[in-house]
User: What shape does this take?
Amino acid sequence: MKIEGGPSDRSLELFLSVLLGAIGLLACVDVAIDLRHEGAGVHVLVETLIAAIALPAAALLIRLMIRRRRQLSRSLSAAEADAQRWRQDAQALIRGLGASIDVQFTRWTLTDAEKETALLLLKGLSHKQIAAARGTSDATARQQAGAVYRKAGVAGRSELAAFFLEDLALPAADQGAAAHIDPRTA
Assistant: This one.
């Protein structure tokens, strides 16, 4: 029997271990009562066998449950540690990407307003949303977006995003026969 370890499985295991333990204990009590009143017989032998099977089975189930709980606890701790390391690594990469984007914005000689607009464009905001976020008019957001595209030498939002995201794809060697595509010539 494969035990998956879900809540209903654990409840079933607990129920079975308590049930087996109770059967074993009741059989022991019955054997003790039978020995006082009737003496030894086939009935007592059967009840002794029931107790001899039920009590160790209950103990084994409980032991397995405890072992699995410890394993799950160790696995959870390891997974939490891995997730924490991943978050730290990801934060470092995001800070590096943010710094690299800012350097490129400076190379393109974007003004502070254009840098902010470009970053909001990269995040996928519409012109209307950019205007609302920056407290400007829709026309101003469109003009600043146009200035960003012109200074970056790209045709629009897609090419701007592709400029920064293109190198995030797997290297051509890892992609097999996939060719490198320049979004500005595609």
